[in-house]
């Protein structure tokens, strides 16, 4: 696990495992929505890393930006955790073929 800073405080990353995916869904962010709701995804991930919930995470992230910070470090460590997650990679492998297969088919009305 890596360490990252938000608002001058250090936090430890969390692994993208089955429980993490469920925790993200419990916070209203599914992996399918992550591209459409990137800020919600980052806030939910940060909330899980802090163990203090979405409201705390959102407030800390806002203060961080207002004080001149960026989300670059948080986004980088989150991406690294996704890349090294055996579960996340396996999940993507099983979902991609189904998405590709359905992409070429027109919906019947």
Key descriptive features of the protein:
mainly alpha; disordered C terminus; 109 residues
Helix content: 55-70%
Low-pLDDT ranges? 96-109
What radius of gyration results from the CA coordinates? 16 Å
Q: Can you summarize the main beta sheet? A: 2 strands, antiparallel
Describe the structure.
- This protein is mainly alpha-helical and 109 residues long.
- The chain is 61% helix and 7% strand.
- It has helices at residues 18-26, 38-50, 53-66, 72-84, 86-103; strands spanning 3-6, 9-12.
- A two-stranded antiparallel sheet has the order 1-2.
- A hairpin with a 2-residue loop joins strand 1 (3-6) and strand 2.
- It is globular, with a radius of gyration of 16 Å.
Write a concise synopsis of the structure shown.
By secondary structure, the protein is mainly alpha-helical. The protein has helices spanning 18-26, 38-50, 53-66, 72-84, 86-103, and strands at 3-6, 9-12.
Question: What's the arrangement of secondary structure elements?
Answer:
Layout: E1 3-6, E2 9-12, H1 18-26, H2 38-50, H3 53-66, H4 72-84, H5 86-103
Antiparallel strand pairs: 1-2
Helix pairs in contact: 2-3
